[in-house]
UniProtKB/TrEMBL annotation:
InterPro entries: ABC_transp_permease (IPR001851), LivM-like (IPR043428). It is a multi-pass membrane protein. GO terms for cellular component: plasma membrane. It comes from Rhodospirillum rubrum (strain ATCC 11170 / ATH 1.1.1 / DSM 467 / LMG 4362 / NCIMB 8255 / S1). This is Inner-membrane translocator. Transmembrane segments: none annotated. GO terms for molecular function: branched-chain amino acid transmembrane transporter activity. Keywords: Cell membrane, Membrane, Transmembrane, Transmembrane helix. It is found in: Cell membrane.
Length: 334
């Protein structure tokens, strides 16, 4: 096992242990931010697997997040709630109620299955073609959710999902996700992913299948996107089709690109930076008294500042804050 992976796993374990003590010292507001941050790290890291390590820039990841949330929500709703909210649900689903963990894993598996079907034609594409095509997949998923009222309540809010995602639970899921993705990325399979990203012709010349390599990353990423979607739903308790559409996609892409697409640590850094800045700027929007001057409310200023920051980072660090490096590699040569 490489030194880098040992350090990453050690840090992840310390983070998980800290999670058990944090609820005792962190306010409810702070816990909400941390939980959403953990879920965002899962979603951004899953997106980065295909986008950053194979060079296939997919815009359809939010479609898998939506599928994960709805599948897990349907499976975990109580039988009574299903009778009330989803009276037309097929019998084989109406009588089933799963716990959060099996429902989450099954939701991830469903997303992986869908990714194989969708990825077989789409992963043959490259460049902006695959981006547009995967965005089309996200739009199709949204349209299906809105129109499949028997399963999703259509455009109405899907509610009644058990809300049992606490800070320690979210941290554990995040640690497991990062550990598994790190194990994959820094293995011979990860080397194949990066080879396909750097030069598809050279990768094919040494016997690598570009389609299979891309499809593997796309499928694994979809699994964890489904897991993140399930956790998202089980934290909020209520959501709609609009929850998983363009605004969420843009937010995740900003976090991914800002942190660095070719780095697992970049996902964490991107989420931390964007979340912290959003919260700070949101408070400043309300105005403040500095003693010598009163700053009036500047509604919408947070989005403007974040947009400007994103532009500056793309100009001066187009490969993101960490580029292709992990946090554990700083201070070492090579």
């Amino acid at each position: 096992m490489s030194r880098r992976l040992v350090l990453m796993l050690g840090g992840a374990c310390l983070l998980a242990l800290a999670g058990w003590g944090l609820p005792m010292v962190v306010s409810d507001y702070g816990q909400r931010l941390l939980i959403m941050g953990c879920i965002s790290v899962i979603l951004v890291a899953s997106m980065g697997l295909a986008n950053g390590f194979t060079g296939v820039f997919s815009l359809g990841q939010v479609g898998f997040v939506a599928i994960g949330a709805y599948v897990s929500g349907i499976l975990s709703l109580s039988v009574a709630d299903k009778a009330a909210y989803l009276p037309d649900l097929p019998a084989f689903l109406a009588g089933v109620q799963m716990g959060t963990v099996p429902a989450t894993l099954l939701a991830g598996a469903v997303c992986a299955g869908v990714a194989v079907i969708v990825g077989l034609p789409l992963m043959r594409l490259s460049g902006h073609h695959v981006s547009v095509a995967t965005m089309g997949f996200m739009i199709i998923v949204n349209s299906v959710i809105v129109n499949a009222e028997s399963f999703t309540r259509g455009a109405r809010t899907f509610t009644g999902v058990p809300t049992d995602i606490t800070l320690p639970v979210a941290l554990i899921w995040m640690v497991i996700t990062l550990a598994l993705l790190g194990r994959l990325i820094y293995s011979p399979i990860g080397l194949a992913l990066r080879s396909v990203r750097e030069d598809t012709i050279a990768a094919q010349a040494v016997g690598l299948s570009v389609l299979k390599t891309r499809l593997l990353a796309f499928t694994v990423g979809a699994f964890f996107a489904g897991v993140g979607g399930s956790l998202y739903g089980h934290y909020l308790g209520s959501f709609s089709a609009q929850t998983f559409f363009f605004p969420l996609m843009v937010s995740l892409i900003i976090m991914l690109v800002l942190g660095g697409m070719g780095s697992l640590s970049g996902a964490v850094v991107g989420v931390v930076v964007v979340t912290a800045l959003s919260e700070i700027l949101r408070n400043l929007e309300r105005g403040m008294d500095l003693g010598f001057v009163v700053v009036p409310p500047l509604f919408g200023a947070s989005q403007v500042v974040l947009g400007l920051l994103f532009i500056l980072v793309m100009i001066y660090r187009p490969r993101g804050l960490l580029e292709d490096r992990e946090l554990t590699s700083f201070g070492r040569k090579g």
